[in-house]
């Protein structure tokens, strides 16, 4: 387990506040409403439960799972305890339960290889009702520049720019991997963490093809939450409907 999500999971909302992915979250809510309410939603890699909370507030029957126990502990502070659970996506075993399954923030890439990803997609398909839909947010290595970025946030004591999260995404095109470098620090708490995550099958075209052969139709790749045609994005969205 990566420390950013596990031993530092209780700090996650400090360096990645709930409003960071508001447009992606609104897209999910819009798609769920388009499926028709009531809609049962599963968020794979739900983290601290921000999307689950927003979806439930929008009258969507939302649930979440995450492999990191610390993230689920945090999630249970904002949503009912029985709506989120500690579980790896590799162990998903539900049948015909959800109308929409989503996985954002590149969570789907925390797999061993393309074969394991195919197995996960098969499990997602089984968990969807016939005609149910899938939305994945994926890394597209060929569009990554590899430069460092930084987010500065107010710390727990109210000090501006007390928290920093630096990040860099390095694509290895030959292996279809992305190496994600993260550096978290909080001056007032005297905390710091650096680690690298390896993301597998980081190519939107390959993932879309795997989705199609896993039993989905109407597979589309979008550049962003605007549902625009895929072009330059390094964080694409892939949509598909279960056959």
SSE inventory with pairings:
Elements: H1 12-15, H2 22-35, E1 40-44, H3 50-57, E2 61-66, H4 69-75, E3 84-86, E4 98-103, H5 114-127, E5 128-139, E6 149-153, E7 163-172, E8 177-186, E9 191-199, H6 204-213, E10 216-222, E11 235-242
Parallel strand pairs: 1-2, 1-4, 2-3, 4-5
Antiparallel strand pairs: 5-11, 6-7, 7-8, 8-9, 10-11
Summarize this entry quickly.
The protein has 6 helices and 11 strands.
Q: Which features does this protein show?
A:
11 strands, N-terminal domain of TfIIb, 243 residues, 23% helix, 6 helices, alpha/beta, seven-stranded mixed sheet, Rossmann fold
Q: How would you spell out the order of helices and strands?
A: HHEHEHEEHEEEEEHEE
CATH class of the largest domain: Alpha Beta
- Kindly state the number of beta strands: 11
- Give the overall average pLDDT: 97
The main pleated sheet reads as: 7 strands, mixed
CATH topology of the largest domain: Rossmann fold
Q: What ranges have pLDDT less than 50 throughout 5 or more consecutive residues?
A: none
Assign the CATH architecture of the largest domain.
3-Layer(aba) Sandwich
Tally of helical segments: 6
Could you describe the 3D structure shown?
This protein is an alpha/beta fold. 23% of the residues lie in helices and 33% in strands. It contains 6 helices and 11 strands. A 7-stranded mixed β-sheet has the order 3-2-1-4-5-11-10, with helices on both faces. The chain has a 4-stranded antiparallel β-sheet with strand order 6-7-8-9, with no helix packed on it. It is globular.
């Amino acid at each position: 387990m990566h420390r950013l999500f596990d031993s530092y999971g209780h700090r996650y909302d400090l360096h990645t506040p709930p409003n960071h992915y508001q447009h992606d979250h609104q897209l999910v809510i819009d798609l769920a409403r388009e499926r028709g309410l009531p809609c049962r939603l599963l968020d794979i890699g739900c983290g601290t439960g921000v999307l689950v909370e927003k979806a439930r507030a929008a009258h969507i029957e939302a649930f979440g799972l995450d492999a990191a126990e610390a993230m689920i502990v945090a999630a249970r502070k904002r949503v009912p305890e029985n709506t989120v659970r500690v579980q790896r996506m590799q162990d998903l075993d539900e049948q015909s339960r959800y109308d929409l399954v989503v996985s954002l923030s590149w969570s789907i890439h925390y797999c061993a290889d393309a074969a394991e990803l195919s197995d996960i997609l098969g499990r997602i398909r089984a968990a969807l009702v016939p005609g149910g839909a899938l939305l994945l947010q994926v890394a597209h290595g060929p569009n990554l520049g590899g430069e460092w970025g930084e987010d500065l946030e107010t710390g727990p004591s109210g000090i501006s720019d007390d928290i920093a999260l630096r990040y860099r995404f390095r694509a290895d095109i030959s292996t279809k991997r992305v190496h994600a470098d993260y550096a978290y620090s909080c001056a007032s708490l005297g905390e710091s963490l650096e680690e690298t995550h390896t993301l597998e099958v980081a190519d939107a075209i390959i993932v879309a093809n795997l989705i199609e052969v896993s039993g989905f139709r109407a597979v589309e790749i979008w550049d962003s939450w605007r549902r625009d045609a895929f072009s330059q994005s390094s964080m694409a969205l892939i949509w598909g409907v279960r056959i």
